[in-house]
């Protein structure tokens, strides 16, 4: 079987142009003719520049590539990725394309070293470049969307942190005394309810210490409210230092404080704590270069012996406090049911 | 680090590459219309597993770099990579195109022209000495970032890398690039045997 090379070459999906170093065309195949709207016979003998409009920079580059191919006896490459196209040809895209001309990979291979002739093999890479361009566009859009999403997430996080801080502030305002930062009545009530519920189930005991500063009204009236407030703050600190972290120290109102002491073995423990508090609070408080002496009286009630709900326990401790005051102040008393 | 060549083999390899570099330098000088000198190459060889580490090492403080890749197939086959830092790539492009400003495509096409010449000269020489045949595939070039090395596709099918430091002097500029020739064990052995017979 004889091979018809011309038929073979005309049937392949690659453009073939043979030119010499002066760019005179020696051959073009059917593929190039179709994509360039020229007749193969007409092109032969013409200069490449009379058939294709090649910008100056690309022309210089083409001449360098031809020289490299002929000198190194090796192929030289133009890539669509870096150059777009070398020869302006129609692409065969039937959809709207981002490219005006066919995107080409062009391989320049030596054909005849003596005559300084090379063959240019042209591959249509428009579809590939179209896909690549689409991918790049999508990547850029995705990157933009990610950037916007990240900015939104950051804003939401900032808003969330602000909200958490506000919630925290609102909780503190609702549950803590603004002057001493001790628990207020609301929180005291919640904690006491919890203690009642858990100790009812476990059968354990806890104590309620009701404190009232002795003669605080006189101090307030004689030295002023500012000094009075500073004394209350100091008292609060002393109470916190003298109790465990698990205990609840609350400002009940004015110069009244309540301490919930959980998980106690006997009444003796409460007596010991009360005695310690009476002693500690006897220490003079230094305010504005003045040593001010404050004492306290304490009434003690015990769960469940002296009450099984909030009101009963507070009332029992209050009765014991009255007893302490009656006994000359600066002391403590445990609730005695017979006193009711 | 694995050293695949004996001292004697390395000397001969250097000599071969130097000859091909001479040819390449003359062509590069021609295309730049200037005197160009490719320095006597520094050669080392590493295991393919150390390729990324070596690229990071040769780039020094630079994070971004241009990477070209070109496969060659036939009785002598493998792949050639080139790594250029942005400064060298930009300087070469400016010298080649003589333009005040160069965009990324200008840089890519210029670097491809340069690497095409060096690859053809060098691999052509190797083919010549081992009496092999090879065809070159279309090269590619991309800008990469050292910080994203894990995201790029891994190159597979090779065992060894010949690392060639290429320093090109043009005018007062020193353009530094690194050439990595990736070969499998069989190709490396064939090259070594041929070198031993020279």
Describe the structure.
The complex is a heterodimer of chains A (340) and B (198). Chain A has 340 residues and is α+β, with helices and mostly antiparallel strands. In chain A, 50% of the residues lie in helices and 21% in strands. Chain A is built from twelve helices and twelve strands. A five-stranded antiparallel beta sheet of chain A has the order 2-1-5-4-3. The two termini of chain B are 27 Å apart. The model of chain B has no long low-confidence stretch (mean pLDDT 89). The chains are: A alpha+beta (340), B alpha+beta (198).
Mean pLDDT of chain B: 89
Which stretches of chain B are low in confidence, meaning pLDDT under 50 for 5 or more residues running? Answer: none
Count of separate DSSP helical elements of chain A:
12
Oligomer state equals: heterodimer
Distance between the termini of chain B: 27 Å
Largest sheet descriptor of chain B: 8 strands, antiparallel
- Computed over alpha carbons, the radius of gyration of chain B is 16 Å
In short:
The complex is a heterodimer of chains A (340) and B (198). With 340 residues, chain A is an alpha+beta fold.
Task: Pick out its properties.
heterodimer, A: 340 residues, alpha+beta, five-stranded antiparallel beta sheet, five-stranded mixed beta sheet, 12 helices, 12 strands, 50% helix, 21% strand, B: 198 residues, eight-stranded antiparallel beta sheet, 5 helices, 8 strands, 29% strand
Lay out the secondary structure.
The complex is a heterodimer of chains A (340) and B (198).
Chain A: H1 5-11, E1 15-20, E2 25-28, H2 30-36, H3 40-43, H4 48-51, H5 56-72, E3 76-78, H6 80-83, E4 104-112, E5 117-124, H7 126-175, H8 185-202, E6 205-213, H9 216-223, H10 225-242, E7 248-253, E8 256-264, H11 267-282, E9 285-287, E10 290-292, E11 296-303, H12 310-326, E12 332-334
Parallel strand pairs in A: 11-12
Antiparallel strand pairs in A: 1-2, 1-5, 3-4, 4-5, 6-8, 6-11, 7-8, 9-10
Helix pairs in contact in A: 9-10, 10-11
Chain B: H1 7-32, E1 36-38, E2 42-47, H2 51-59, E3 64-74, E4 78-84, H3 86-97, H4 104-129, E5 134-136, E6 140-145, E7 160-170, E8 173-183, H5 185-197
Antiparallel strand pairs in B: 1-7, 2-7, 3-4, 3-5, 3-6, 4-8, 7-8
Helix pairs in contact in B: 1-4, 3-4
